[in-house]
């Protein structure tokens, strides 16, 4: 029994040592979005545990399996930025990401997401959407009025005197 | 028709002409307001080549003033009880009527092309914002002013800059996701939180789109020219019908 408790006690620090990694949620974290065509907005490692330590974000581009690293300093509490912006990615590509704190060897789980695709602006159809009711009314009534006046003028010139 | 009835008809013609002269002068003034473009949104229609709202306003300036002058002449012609003068009056009024009809119809139709939905304005923004050509500079200036003053971002929202490719993204995409004009500013004009805005922190960026403002301004211009022009034309139509009856009763 005591041995089981000791084993559990030894396992606990390993659980706390896992850094949280996730994409920011617009509803919870107060950002517009976290998936961009060329970047991701990721949650920062906990500022109270890892503030001011240097950290690395290891990211792998699938399917080419290219490994890259971004080094940064974890900001100390209170944090002004909502998250970490990982830039210079390719659009429509899947990436594997993982945090690692230098020196302490704490890591996070792997996060796999895909960047969004962009639509070319030339594809936007900027033709006439629909004719509004106002335009139809004005055109019809004015055309009828023009014809009526013309007929009236002809009648008044022909049938006078 | 008896002399009394003819005199009565003459007074009706004179009264209607006086009202039409005033209405024509007001049309002249309103069309000047549209042509002056106080909201400075002309580049959006000019660059797209669909600036007929402003062309219609120019026509309305001339027809409004012409209505004013011709209706005063009409008062004089009615008082003179002269057939020749009334015929000239009727012909000139009819010609001006045709031009004003063209102006009203053109303004209403062109508005549908420009702001029927946000596609044309959005495509133009994505293509020309941050472009270095003359049109690009005009569009960039116009959009920066609109985004800062109306406190909006993009055509339908900041997501326009994310969903679509754009000249801005090609030039500045490695640093900025959207222009800094989308960010909230202090009263000193400095950006309140530049780092937060660049990342998309919701409290530092304007979430709504600018299309609603652009649409309401261009609609306002169009209604000034086309609906008010339409109402002046209806009044003039009625005046001309009475004037034709008066003309037929003159000997």
From TrEMBL, chain A:
Segment forming the signal sequence: 1-17
Presence of the UniProt keyword Membrane in the record: yes
The keyword Endoplasmic reticulum is assigned to this record: no
Pfam families registered for this protein in UniProt: Uroplakin_II (PF07353)
Keywords: Membrane, Signal, Transmembrane, Transmembrane helix
InterPro entries for this protein: Uroplakin-2
Transmembrane segments: 134-159
Protein name: Uroplakin 2
Organism: Cyprinus carpio carpio
From TrEMBL, chain B:
Location relative to the cell: Membrane
Keyword line: Membrane, Transmembrane, Transmembrane helix
Cited CDD domains: uroplakin_I_like_LEL
GO cellular component: plasma membrane
InterPro entries in the cross-refs: Tetraspanin/Peripherin, Tetraspanin_animals, Tetraspanin_EC2_sf
Predominant location: membrane
Membrane topology: Multi-pass membrane protein
Pfam annotation, one family: Tetraspanin
Transmembrane segments: 7-33, 53-76, 88-108, 227-248
Keyword rRNA-binding part of the UniProt annotation: no
Keyword Membrane recorded: yes
Family membership noted in the UniProt record: Belongs to the tetraspanin (TM4SF) family.
Name of this protein: Tetraspanin
Species annotation: Cyprinus carpio carpio
């Amino acid at each position: 029994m005591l041995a089981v408790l000791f084993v559990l006690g030894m396992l606990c620090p390993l659980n706390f040592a896992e850094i949280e990694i996730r994409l920011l949620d617009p509803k919870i974290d107060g950002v517009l979005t976290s998936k961009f065509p060329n970047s991701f907005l990721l949650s920062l490692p906990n500022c109270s545990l890892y503030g001011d330590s240097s950290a690395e974000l290891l990211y792998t581009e699938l399917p080419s399996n290219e490994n890259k690293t971004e080094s940064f300093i974890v900001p100390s509490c209170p944090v002004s930025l909502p998250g970490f912006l990982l830039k210079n990615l390719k659009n429509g590509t899947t990436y594997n990401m993982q945090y690692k704190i230098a020196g302490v060897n704490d890591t996070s789980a792997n996060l796999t997401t895909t960047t969004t695709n962009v639509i070319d602006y030339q594809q936007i159809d900027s033709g006439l959407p629909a004719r509004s009711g106002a335009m139809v009314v004005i055109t019809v009534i004015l055309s009828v009025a023009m014809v009526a006046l013309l007929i009236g003028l002809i009648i008044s010139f022909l049938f006078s005197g | 028709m008896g002399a009394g009835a003819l005199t009565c008809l003459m007074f009706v013609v004179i009264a209607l002409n006086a009202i039409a002269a005033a209405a024509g002068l007001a049309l002249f003034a309103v069309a000047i307001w549209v042509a002056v473009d106080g909201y400075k949104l002309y580049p959006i229609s000019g660059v797209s080549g669909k600036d007929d709202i402003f062309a219609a306003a120019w026509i309305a300036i001339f027809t409004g003033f012409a209505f004013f002058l011709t209706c005063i002449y009409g008062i004089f012609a009615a008082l003179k009880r002269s057939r020749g003068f009334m015929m000239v009056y009727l012909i000139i009024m009819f010609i001006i009527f045709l031009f004003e009809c063209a102006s009203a119809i053109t303004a209403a139709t062109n508005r549908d092309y420009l702001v029927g939905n946000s596609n044309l304005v959005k495509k133009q923004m994505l293509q020309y914002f941050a472009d270095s050509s003359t049109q690009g500079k005009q569009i960039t200036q116009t959009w920066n002013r609109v985004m800062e003053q109306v406190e909006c971002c993009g055509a339908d929202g900041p997501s326009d800059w994310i969903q679509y490719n754009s000249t801005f993204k090609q030039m500045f995409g490695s640093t900025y996701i959207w222009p800094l004009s989308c960010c909230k500013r202090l009263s000193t004009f400095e950006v309140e939180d530049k780092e937060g805005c660049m990342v998309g922190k919701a409290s530092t960026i304007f979430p709504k789109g600018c299309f609603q403002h652009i649409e309401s301004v261009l609609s306002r211009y169009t209604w000034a020219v086309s609906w008010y022009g339409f109402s002046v034309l209806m009044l003039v139509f009625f005046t001309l019908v009475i004037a034709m009856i008066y003309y037929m009763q003159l000997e």
